[in-house]
């Protein structure tokens, strides 16, 4: 009896000491026991970074997340600084699209196929260093070797594709079966032939659309939007046109702006130079407002979701990330068809037309001006609901980790 009393007293004493720290202890235990997800991303272009950030937003509450950059670590082209990502951005900013198309689909793709041993060694090093329970890739070029590494280590692998053209995403895969690799795609109908040719079965493929940051789901009030109007000097009761070419910017923005500044219609241009500070300075120096057309020049900003709520029209390339944001925001979209497009972006036009509203391609500057002047301010709903990446992805992860989860709607 005394032993029982002593045990109860000890238990009560321990509980009374630990009680004030119970929340800290619970948080520590939760963090310690959470499974770790490794996201393979890239700093070349903004789409990959955006996807990795969205995944961290969605999965960070239930899992530990870490991001690695295999291309920077030389997984594809080890002899170039940062794996060539800086060169990619430079060519993109200066509109050297033909050279990029040629480089990515010939020497780079060929090397990616020849260098599987180098890739496998580097990917094994990265995965062993991070020691994850689950691996997600949002980049092309390294996925065949990553699937092999994950299979050998018995780690689930998910490939999140961000383009409807999958040649470089599936480099190295043959027409054999790949049961260890599960893939998400923007739209199954756009890519099913490419995946079937590589041996993927419908049950391995999930249609989820593109990742979208949670700030795009915010309920924007008139006060929120008025704050943005004041911040960027956007007049009310005027057509607002956004000019964007990704986070790296592009000299094409200068051409768009100069074309629209000759318009007789009243409008305000929101010109987004992204992280390209040199381009931002060029735009601020070279452009002058007219009696009818005013403008704001922006660098990199987190205000894009709100600005898209204010705008009526977007002028851009068929970039999956930017156009997905515009479709969600119900903008009219004008796509630049005046020059060669990136080979992996061009097929996205079908996706944009399928889910967007008032989508047009302009073939010259006169058409750009004409289409902008004709586009009507009233917003209409999208042609059809977008596939919801943000809703589906957690269920797919739980399914692959064999955690309790309903069958995802995205499964074919």
The run of helices and strands is: HHEHEHHHEHEEHEHEHEHEHEHEHEHH
Q: Which second-level CATH architecture of the largest domain applies? A: 3-Layer(aba) Sandwich
Indicate the CATH topology of the largest domain: Rossmann fold
Low-confidence stretches: 24-30
Number of domains: 2
Largest sheet: 6 strands, parallel
Share of β-strand residues:
5-15%
What's the arrangement of strands in the largest beta sheet? 2-1-3-4-5-6
N→C terminal distance: 64 Å
Q: What Rg is obtained from the alpha carbons, in whole angstroms?
A: 25 Å
Describe this structure in words.
- By secondary structure, this protein is an alpha/beta fold.
- The chain has 2 domains: 33-209 and 388-400, 3-Layer(aba) Sandwich (Rossmann fold); 215-374, 3-Layer(aba) Sandwich (Rossmann fold).
- 44% of the residues lie in helices and 14% in strands.
- The protein contains 16 helices and 12 strands.
- The chain has helices at residues 2-18, 22-33, 47-59, 85-93, 97-114, 116-130, 143-153, 188-197, 222-232, 252-260, 277-286, 304-310, 320-328, 348-355, 365-374, 389-400, and strands at 36-40, 64-68, 134-137, 157-160, 181-185, 205-207, 239-244, 267-272, 293-298, 313-316, 332-336, 357-362.
- Strands 2-1-3-4-5-6 form a 6-stranded parallel sheet, with helices on both faces. A 6-stranded parallel sheet has the order 9-8-7-10-11-12, with helices on both faces.
- Helix 8 (188-197) links the parallel strand 5 and strand 6 (205-207).
- Helix 6 (116-130) crosses helix 7, helix 9 (222-232) packs across helix 12 and helix 10 packs across helix 15 (365-374).
- 41% of the residues are buried.
- Mean pLDDT is 84; it is low at 24-30.
């Amino acid at each position: 009896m005394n032993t029982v009393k002593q045990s109860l007293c000890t238990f009560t004493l321990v509980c009374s000491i630990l009680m004030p720290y119970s929340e800290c202890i619970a948080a520590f235990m939760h963090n310690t026991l959470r499974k770790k997800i490794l996201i393979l991303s890239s700093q070349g272009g903004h789409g990959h970074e955006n996807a990795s950030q969205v995944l961290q937003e969605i999965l960070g509450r239930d899992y530990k997340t870490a991001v690695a950059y295999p291309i920077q670590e030389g997984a594809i082209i080890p002899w170039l600084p940062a794996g060539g990502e800086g060169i990619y951005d430079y060519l993109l900013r200066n509109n050297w699209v033909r050279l990029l198309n040629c480089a990515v689909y010939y020497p780079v793709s060929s090397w990616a196929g020849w260098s599987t041993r180098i890739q496998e060694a580097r990917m094994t090093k990265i995965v062993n260093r991070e020691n994850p329970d689950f691996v997600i890739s949002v980049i092309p070029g390294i996925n065949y070797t990553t699937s092999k590494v994950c299979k050998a280590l018995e780690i689930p692998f998910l490939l999140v594709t961000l383009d409807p053209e999958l040649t470089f995403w599936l480099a190295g895969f043959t027409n054999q079966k790949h049961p260890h690799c599960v893939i998400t795609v923007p739209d199954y109908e756009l890519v099913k032939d490419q995946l079937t040719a590589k041996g993927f079965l419908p049950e391995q493929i999930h249609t989820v659309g593109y990742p979208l940051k949670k700030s795009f789901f915010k309920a924007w009030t008139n006060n929120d939007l008025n704050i943005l109007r004041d911040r960027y000097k956007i007049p009310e009761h005027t057509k607002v046109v956004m000019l964007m070419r990704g986070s790296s910017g592009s000299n094409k923005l200068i051409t768009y702006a100069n074309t629209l500044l000759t318009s007789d219609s009243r409008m305000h241009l929101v010109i987004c130079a992204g992280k390209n500070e040199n381009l931002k300075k060029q735009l601020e120096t070279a452009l002058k407002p007219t009696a009818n057309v005013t403008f704001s020049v922006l660098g990199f900003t987190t205000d894009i979701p709100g600005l898209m709520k204010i705008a009526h029209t977007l002028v851009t390339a068929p970039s999956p990330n930017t156009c997905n944001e515009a479709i969600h925001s119900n903008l009219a979209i004008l796509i630049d068809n005046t020059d060669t497009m990136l080979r992996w972006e061009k097929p996205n036009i079908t996706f944009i037309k399928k889910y967007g509203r008032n989508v047009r391609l302009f073939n010259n500057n006169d058409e750009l001006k004409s289409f902008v002047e004709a586009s009507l301010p009233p917003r209409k709903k999208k042609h059809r609901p977008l596939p919801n990446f943000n809703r589906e992805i957690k269920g797919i992860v739980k399914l692959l980790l064999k955690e309790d989860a309903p069958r995802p709607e995205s499964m074919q």
